[in-house]
Automatic annotation (TrEMBL):
It is found in: Membrane. The lineage of its organism: Eukaryota, Viridiplantae, Streptophyta, Embryophyta, Tracheophyta. Its main location: membrane. It comes from Daucus carota subsp. sativus. One of its GO terms (molecular function) is glycosyltransferase activity. Keywords: Glycoprotein, Glycosyltransferase, Membrane, Transferase. One of its GO terms (cellular component) is membrane. This is Uncharacterized protein. The keyword Nucleotide-binding does not apply.
Amino acid sequence: MLSSTPTPLIPTLTLFISITIIFFLFNPSLLPTTHRSSPPIPLSDELSDLSLFSRATRRAAAKSRLGTTNQNPKIAFLFLTNTDLYFAPLWQIFFDNYSALYNIYIHVDPTVKITPPGGVFQGRVIKDLHRTYRGTATLISAARRLLATAILDDSSNFYFALVSQQCVPLHSFMFVYNALFRQNVDSVSLDRLSFIEILSNESILPDRYNARGKGVMVPEVPFDKFRVGSQFFVLTRRHSLMVLRDRKLWRKFKIPCINVHSCYPEEHYFSTMLSMLDPKGCSFYTLTRVNWTDSVNGHPHTYYPPEVSAELIYSLRESNSSYSYLFARKFSPDSLNTLLDLSEKVIFKD
């Protein structure tokens, strides 16, 4: 006759399975990466951003009603970084003597300790409480906060150039300024272009589109409207305000990705939105040169000191458009001295 007393194997096995499930649930980094979600944006961060964006758009509307004109339109340089500004000495030379024509805003991840930059960068760091993560919508949020801060700070900011700590200028400041304001700067017209890359035929688009799950992006973003482009751009004030007013597309792009290998929302949100809202107001190309020929883990080619030369600077300037490339990335921090040696006779000699 079989005993009805339960064997110790069953409860032991059950306990082992339960502990294993709990262990993996609380350690998602141990799960296969294709099934791990990117972190969601906390509600408190969302509400804080909405308040900031609303203040910026209201301020801009009030200035517009007052009929203020920009006799000296400025370029707002937005540095999105999570490390020291390695190339601050080079940018310092770039900005020298043109204080009436630019502003600088620096976003730093709150978990990163950086050496406060001096010179023209002193006091320009924005103390942000919101974390940023690569390959998540937090990078979109950080860029939007930079735009809002610049709009609130100075109504003369007309162009907004987003760059990283590994970007360097390829021309002098006045070359850049004159290239953007080719028309008479005393009449900043609304028909100026934003310089943002917008691509529609890339093989990566299906995977990127479905990174949050199939069907998630509709109806707001149908696949035929989905675009990809460079993370770094130069936007007009009008387009920057469009970005800050957007709620519809943001509801989709902020959804955490399931497939983290295909999740680069910062390369899609701005290009998709402006392509949908005002394609004729966009250049469809970027002014920041990036070399993707030997990218690694989603990072472009990095230039190291042996590669940095006058010939490299000249080649990085070349483009297929009527505009020369104005900036380039990405450079290793130890290439600074080589770039400084080239600054007077090559980089800033147009």
